[in-house]
Amino acid sequence: MLLIADSGSTKADWAWVAKDGETSYVHTAGYNPVVHPKELFHGEMDRLTTELLPGLSPKEVHYYGAGCWDYKRKQVIQDRIQQSWPEAKVLVMHDLLGAARAACGRNPGIACILGTGSNTCSYDGDDVTDNVTNLGFMLGDEGSGSHLGKALLRTYFYRELDDELTDAFEKFAKVDKSDILDKVYESDIPNTYLASFTRFMGEHQDHPLIQKIVFTSFAEFLDRHVRKYRGHLDLPVSFIGSIAFHFKPILLAAMHERDLKVGRFVHKPIEALADFHRSVATFK
Questions:
Q1: Mean pLDDT of 124-153
Q2: What is the pLDDT of residues 155-171, one digit of tens each?
């Protein structure tokens, strides 16, 4: 019996794979040890074990998480999971490996995450082979929800939206300019707040100015990350994450302009990860 987690900064998806292969799914708030206090994860684990999946006893837990790139950050997660299931084998891995397995399966390719944050890697069908440094939402995260949100807010505050979009945005935001700035600079999770504005952009993505903002962000993402990998013109480039899924036509346009090979767009990576692990003989 196997428990799999795919956790981003905003949302975490969990798959419980029973011995007969039957799979059930639950969701908790996301957790990124780089930007979130550990108490957030502790609280969500309490909810998982007492409300969402009470009484389960997994033999193995495979946790793929944003920000899990070193021992210190992985250990925060491992210790709390092990506290709930002391007998389980717990593996905490970077979300990049999860993205590669979900998007590419056992085939070589370039895997991309475009959600609240962004990241990329090259993958040989077994493991991550290269990763262009991800600088996070303050310095990087090109193409991500937080990056798009920042671009939209700059356009709004610099009075570059037309009257129609300005009116629509102010109705969507339901707060004044000072409230927006307060939430950006005083929130514990500003990246998530910034990414929340992509819902407005999705609703208006037929507008030329919104298309320009999104295309520019995707172009920067492809140029600064994807095109840095050896063999990037030959390897399929696959995507997971809500931003890639909801803005797929604009992303495809940016890819075609750069002659990149289109791979898979995976809307629900947790389902692909469950398929991946079910296919491994030791988990059957």
A1: 91
A2: 999 999 999 999 999 99
Mean pLDDT, range 243-251, rounded to an integer: 95
Q: Which residues contact 177 (CB under 8 A, 6 or more apart)?
A: 157
2-100+269-283: CATH topology is: Nucleotidyltransferase; domain 5 (3.30.420)
Cα R_g (the chain), whole angstroms? 19
Strands across the sheet with 60-65, in order?
23-29, 11-17, 2-7, 60-65, 89-94
Cβ atoms of 162 and 223 within 8 Å: the answer is no
pTM of the complete model: 0.82
* 17, amino acid identity: V
Closest Cα to residue 99, out of 247, 201, 237, 209? 237
The contacts of residue 281 (CB under 8 Å, 6+ apart) are none
Give the mean pLDDT of the chain. Answer: 90
Residue 17 buriedness (CB in 10 A; 0-12 / 13-18 / 19+): buried
The structural domains of the chain, with segments of one domain joined by +, span 2-100+269-283
